[in-house]
Write a structure and sequence with these properties.
This protein is an alpha+beta fold and about 200 residues long. The protein has a single domain, classed as Aminopeptidase (3-Layer(aba) Sandwich), CATH 3.40.630. The protein is about 30% helix and about 20% strand. An 8-stranded mixed beta sheet has the order 1-2-3-4-5-6-8-7, with helices on both faces. Helix 4 links the parallel strand 5 and strand 6.
């Protein structure tokens, strides 16, 4: 399964000057809600420092980056750098993208969830999912996306959720729709955009 925002792991996380707005919930409460989530078939957990090889296996795979203009990670060091950024975001926000494993197994099937980003000059939650080709076609991406969106709306309702993808990435589009996001042509750039919680009058 290709990601909803195919180059999202290359993007800049929100800077430290815009600390996560957790007005409704404390960081401890967010960590409890997001750090390890069990679904019907999956464990969604906070990434760990030794997940770099698994990240490169997925982010360095040309098949998973078919719709990514930047292409796959060129080497393990690039994936390690991305992982460090994700871990810093977890430390500052108490939530972020998960490592995805099956129940009763440690094998990482992919990465996904929501992470705070600065987009159109405001904080949003970027919905992301990238899974190994062996896990495609089983509904895992939808399971992750629906779980992430549900937690986002419950714990971070003040932040809109967005997913951006290429028009030809049909699998990613369907996942965004199944997660409850709505097509927003008015927000399109080089990607097509799906959103939840972004009002029509929210443009800067």
């Amino acid at each position: 399964m290709h990601t909803a925002t195919d180059d999202t792991h290359k993007e800049r996380p929100s800077g430290s000057s815009t600390v996560a707005d957790t007005r409704a919930f404390t960081p401890a409460g967010l960590a409890t809600a997001f750090v390890a989530v069990r679904t019907d078939r999956l464990i969604l957990r906070q990434p760990q420092g030794d997940d770099g090889p698994a990240m490169f296996a997925i982010h360095g795979d040309p098949a998973t980056n078919r719709y990514n203009p930047a292409g796959p990670d060129p080497d393990p060091a690039a994936s390690e750098e991305t992982l460090r950024g994700w871990l810093c975001q977890w430390e500052s926000d108490s939530y972020g993208y998960w490592a995805i494993t099956p129940l009763n197994a440690d094998t990482i099937l992919g990465f996904g969830g929501v992470m705070r980003r600065t987009w159109r000059d405001r904080d949003v939650l970027n919905l992301y999912y990238r899974l190994t080709p062996d896990a495609w076609g089983r509904g895992y991406a939808t399971e992750v996306a629906r779980t992430a969106v549900g937690l986002a709306r419950s714990y971070l309702p003040h932040l809109p959720v967005i997913a951006r993808t290429r028009p030809t990435n049909i699998a990613s589009i369907r996942t965004a729709e199944r997660a409850g996001l709505v097509r927003r042509p008015d927000l399109d750039t080089e990607h097509i955009v799906f959103a939840l919680g972004w009002r029509s009058d929210d443009h800067p």
